[in-house]
Amino acid sequence: MATETLAGTEVQVDEEGFFVDPGTWTEEMAKELAAHVGVDELTEDHWTVIKFCRTDFESKGESPTLRRVSTEAGVPTKQLFQLFPKKPAKKMSYVAGVPKPKGCV
Amino acid sequence: MDKFDTESDRKLCIIVSHGTLDGAYPSLIMANAAAAEGIDTHLFFTFWGMDVITKKKMGKLSVTPVGNTSMPIPQALAPMPGMATMSTKMMKKQISDLDVPDVPEFMEMLSDMGVHMWACRMSVDMMKLDKDDFFEGVEDIISAGDFMEINEGAQLLFT
What we know:
The structure holds two protein chains of two kinds.
Chain A: E1 2-6, E2 9-13, H1 27-36, H2 44-60, H3 66-72, H4 77-83, H5 88-96
Antiparallel strand pairs in A: 1-2
Chain B: E1 11-16, H1 21-36, E2 40-45, H2 50-53, H3 83-97, H4 103-112, E3 116-120, H5 121-126, E4 138-142, H6 144-150, E5 155-158
Parallel strand pairs in B: 1-2, 1-5, 2-3, 3-4
Helix pairs in contact in B: 1-4
C-alpha cells in the first residue's frame, strides 16, 4: 500500500498505483492519472470509457474488461486501443480510479 | 511517461493445432490476455486448428465426451448418439454465461486487438483450402519456415 498526491489530495493506492478505495477518486485526478500512462489529453471518448468503468464498478463490484466496455458502453475494441494505447484494460481502470480488472475476457 | 512501461518487445506465438471447443478456447483466451497487455501476439493455425479460421466451420466447433475422461459422462455412454451434441450445447452455454463470445466473434475481437493470424501452408494443401475459405483476420498462408522467422525471439506455446 502506498499514498499518492493527485490534484492536491492524498489518496491510497496499491503497489501498481491502482486506487484502493475508488470512492476517493475525483474527476480532477483523471487528467493527472492519464498523463502517468502516456495519455496526454482526455477526449469525450476517453470520458465515455472512464464513466462506464466507474458506473460498472459501482454496480458489479469489479472493474470491466475490454469486452464489457465494447459490448456495454459501445466503444469498439479497436478504439479502446487507440484511446489507451498498448494496455487498454489496465490503463482505463487506472485512469478511472477503479481496481485492476480481474476478468479473463 | 508511461508507468505501465509499454516499450517492452515481448512477443507471444501460439500454435493452434486443435479444432474442438476445449482445444481452441484456451489459445484464444491467452491471445486475448496477451494482446490486452500490449504483447505482440501471433496465432499459427495448423491441422485441426484450421477449423477455427475456416469460415464455414468456425461457428460449429464442438466438444466430444469420447475419450475425454474429464467430462462427467461414463465412457461407456460417451459414444452414444446425441452425446457430443449435448456436450457441445452445454459447454457453449457455460461459455456464453460468462459473457465470453462465441468463436467467430472472439476471432473478430482478437483481430480488432491486432492479433496476427497465420494459416499453415501444409494444412491448406492437405485440406485443399485457399485464402477465400478463411476468416478475414487471417493475414496469410505461410510455411513452417516462414513461421520460424516470425517467432524469432518469441515465447512459444503449442496447443
